[in-house]
Amino acid sequence: MRMRRRPLLGAAVVGGVAYHAGKSRQQSAQQEADQNAQLAELQAQQQYQAAPEPAPSQEDSMAKLAQLKSLLDQGVLTQAEFDAQKTKILQSM
Length: 93
Hints:
- By secondary structure, this protein is an all-alpha fold.
- It folds into two domains: 1-51; 54-93.
- Helices cover 86% and strands 0% of the residues.
- The longest helix has 49 residues, at 2-50.
């Protein structure tokens, strides 16, 4: 019976080592995939931040001014709020 145990013991050791090696490779692959995902996310954020906002067209600015005037006339905005927003729009033109 002893002879039979040794091959089983050897197979168990080999199986255990193989399992551990496979598990280690799987964890390494997962870590690498996580790092790649983080890098892709950072690159996307940098591209988004680097892209300047297009300047609003004159037509857009005029439409915003008309909308602000309408809100002022309706009493939604105060004169001070209207003036502050108007100044921002005119500076962006």
